[in-house]
Amino acid sequence: MSSSDEVEFSRAWDRDGPRVAAYVRRHVPADDVQDVVAETFLQAWRRWEEVPHPPIAWLIGAARKVIGNSRRARRRRGALQDRLTLLGSAARSSEDAGVLATERMAALDALATLPEQQREALLLVAWDGLSPDEAASALGIRPGTFRVRTHRARAALDQSHARDDQPRSLRPARPLNEGGLR
Amino acid sequence: MTNDTILTALAPAPETFEEDWSREALAGILATDRLAAARRRRARRATLVGAAVGAITLSTAAAVASGGPADAVKDLLHQFIEQPNTTGNGLGELRDPELVAQFPLEHGVFALWVATPTSADGVCFAYADGTWDGTGTPTADQLDYGCGGEIVGPDQHPVPLTRPDQLGGFFKDADGPLVYGIAPFPDATTVRVSAAGVDRTLPVRADSHGYGATLPEAAHVPAVTLTFIDVGGRVLGSKTVYAPVG
Q: How far apart are CA B16 and CA A32, in angstroms?
């Protein structure tokens, strides 16, 4: 290993680590975030010569696999309430975001009810700052497939927004134990 | 406010790492033996195709077909053999690639395709080793591919790769034990994999005669015996394959 690799990797740790942590935070409990980030960067270091630069899309794709593996190992099932809790802990507060608390809650509620693939696609761009091509790469899918997912996600959010005008009791109930997350 | 505006506004701010944890975690990562890890990870690949000796891969920008995985592999290999100064150059027409095995790993899938020339000896191959998730079509940069080269033979010395049934074996590395290969008997329909605590029967593909699976129960055995069986239950032959050491 060369010292230039170490320097470059250390820079990636400082620069991209917090972004990876922000991604991880909405998928695992806060106590597990550091472990997942460290494992992700360990994998990156082991194959640093193969990691593209800039590495952020690769790192998020790797973090996603680490998270998936962790979930499988624990046989966790992502209930809707879990997803809401994780999204809520990751998102900015309504004050910091400059939105109403009710708007924030409605947005997170709608996000949590999206199929995971669609939510991932949407948030990789909106929250993680990846370009659509980078996000497609992180997910291991084609850019065209990615565009379809984000389009469907936005359409679902629009429908959800429209339903918000209806009294809550009229909405179809969603079982809390549906397994949207692996 | 629109949904998009609210969504963007809620984007979390990246959080600065705790200084002590960050320093210790980074030092721990940098202290790991990167080269040893890479060697372990590549052991299977090297044994698989060894083709590293002589195979030159195309640019990752190479375009692949928009059909299924086999079409993508076919296009990729055709582009490869048409390139001058590669181990595939001059092999002539290739038969369509056939899937030898595909099974899930801890991360992604392992998938191997082989294609043979119509008028010469040789083997071309493409494989994904945890780099593809098994859905859709693998992209060029998710596949390693080439033609010929050398593989590690039974006596651990390199031998030229000239037949598909030379590929494969029993491997134990970061992804856990796994076995795959191509049955040397055209009539084989199943292969029984056995060792202490291991007794598994795998189907043999009718097209490529390939087989493969992960074998978590084989974590503590150094080798497994493969017994090839035909549709009538007759034993056609067997061989013992050892996991590479080191």
A: 16
Minimal C-alpha gap between B235 and chain A (Å): 39
Third-level CATH fold of A97-170: Arc Repressor Mutant, subunit A (1.10.10)
Q: Is the ipTM, as predicted for this complex, more than 0.90?
A: no
Assign A6 a pLDDT band (cuts: 50, 70, 90). Answer: confident
Query: For residues B48 and B149, is the Cβ–Cβ distance under 8 A?
Result: no
Rounded to the nearest angstrom, the minimum Cα separation between B62 and chain A is 15
pLDDT tens for residues A105-119? 888 888 888 888 889
Q: Tell me, yes or no, if A1 comes closer than 8 A to chain B by beta carbon.
A: yes
Containing B152, the helix (H) or strand (E) segment is strand B150-152
Nearest-CB residue to B12 (from A6, A42, A91): A91
Q: Where in chain A is the domain with CATH 1.10.1740.10?
A: 3-89
Q: What is the pLDDT of residue A159?
A: 79
For chain B, which residues make up each domain, given as ranges? Answer: 19-242
- Given this structure, which CATH class describes domain A3-89? mainly alpha
Global pTM value: 0.48
